[in-house]
């Protein structure tokens, strides 16, 4: 595992000071704030008894989470601290996937964001989130947007807040996880991965476009499903809310302290303020440009 001299980065509008090298994140401006919003440290963690070999998540408190993976045990506290206890011999890239993914996403939840398990892009200045079961092609759809000239805001997560009743998305970090096959097939505008290991099916590729500094209004959430043709289907009010509930990233944290009810309320506010629809399409990579055109037309309110 590679541990760097402490470096300061930026992600989701936060400054992150890390003892672990995180090349997927942008380096912070040296003239910026001296006190970081978030610290990432390496240390030995005393695991609570509730965190057994059969569990991957334990809430020691509403703002104190333990995450357990083969690569590391992680403690996320108060929306400001991530402590990492790596397994012996874990490759650096594997550890980065844990920190930049689950650890940072749970921290965003602690900071009050509604964290949606989604790949998020910007189409004509509006944020669009793609949700769905694992393997439904969230990242592939976002990559297709990228190849069509749109921007990826965040990979595998949407950090949403309500700004005066309008849902807005905070862009994450300028990297996206892609398989070698996807890169060779589509040739998206990304940089080669760095410091990779053979055990990972997908690697972080840095994006070539800048991330917006300000939150982007959320224009729509699309629930990806298989279908014989490309079609967008409206959902009932209850279906819209449950689509958001089911795809809440930190859903494992909601079982205590009334957070589940609060989460449903937030999902209701978001569903009432933005479009949440079902997007059916065939699993045909050649038709991905048509899928993106259909989404763009739907966002623009055009009749198809």
UniProtKB/TrEMBL annotation:
InterPro entries: P-loop_NTPase. It comes from the Archaea. This is HPr kinase/phosphorylase.
